[in-house]
Amino acid sequence: MDNEFIKFSLVMLRLTCFLEAPYLFFHFLEDEIKKLMAKHTQKIIIVGATSGIGKILAMLYAANGDMVAITGRREKLLDELKNIYPQNIITACFDITANNLDSQLKNLVNELNGLDLFIYNAGYGDTSPDLNIEIENTTTLTNVNGFVNAMHFSFNFFIEQGFGQIAVTSSIAALRGNSWAPAYSASKAFMSNYAEGLNIKAKRLKKNIIVTDIKPGFINTKLAKGNRRFWVAPPQKAAKQIMEAIYKKKRIAYITKRWWLIAQVLKILPYSIYRRLA
Ligand SMILES: NC(=O)c1ccc[n+]([C@@H]2O[C@H](COP(=O)([O-])OP(=O)(O)OC[C@H]3O[C@@H](n4cnc5c(N)ncnc54)[C@H](OP(=O)(O)O)[C@@H]3O)[C@@H](O)[C@H]2O)c1
Known about the structure:
Elements: H1 2-39, E1 43-47, H2 52-63, E2 67-72, H3 75-84, E3 89-93, H4 101-112, E4 117-120, H5 133-161, E5 163-169, H6 182-204, E6 208-216, H7 235-247, E7 252-255, H8 259-268, H9 271-277
Parallel strand pairs: 1-2, 1-4, 2-3, 4-5, 5-6, 6-7
The structure holds NADP nicotinamide-adenine-dinucleotide phosphate.
NADP nicotinamide-adenine-dinucleotide phosphate binds at residues 48-54, 72-74, 95-97, 121-125, 142, 169, 171, 216, 218-219, 221-224.
């Protein structure tokens, strides 16, 4: 009886090994690829990394061993981050709407000695119930004009190089117009459409360039305003999901992932209902 049991166990063991071999081999390969990817040091520029989502992204990439150039207007905050990761972070303090943007970005690429990933995360937005012209103009200058100039630089750089990745932080607000922050939602829609346009352009030119459109819902930063917020995520969680989406070279990523559901509803909600909410 014992012998039969041993024989039966051996047969079962061999069968299991046979069936699981492709699965185990696949996982072995996946682990090896991950290790190789982890060893490849990326050269990254993050525009808008002094606080919120951009700051955490910079810290995660730097901790990962990547070389990260971070920008923003608050020099002290840039220096604080550099002091934490002196080997992996370089800084440049400038306003994204300034005229010398091209040369600022060129300097950073030179300092990094190349560029693999360009993240446009800078953004401005505020509620504008009285259609305050300062809010509307600052929003447009930051999210549209500064953005276009940054895209012009990075996309053309990658075209010449033949490869690269751009990630832009738009918003779930890009999906529909909003009466409380009209310039913000319109400027984010501009970013999303621009990102899609660049993806098509890269494909047509047969260049290995991906543009990832990051669409966050509510993230707990100083920019998130309003008292009807829900599903508010910590910036740490948002940044991790953004990194994953960039790594997977996604074209569009909702952050956090559950905002995909809201996006589907927003896309089909009739105007007669939507106008009561927005
Ligand atoms: N928080 C949310 O709920 C939410 C939701 C959807 C989308 N987003 C988007 O996520 C991105 C990051 O925002 P956040 O929530 O992390 O807010 P945040 O902490 O205010 O970060 C905004 C970043 O943009 C930079 N910036 C703004 N204007 C700039 C300018 N003129 N020149 C250079 N840098 C500028 C800021 O740096 P300096 O002030 O130092 O210049 C800062 O580093 C924004 O594009 C925002 O629209 C946020």
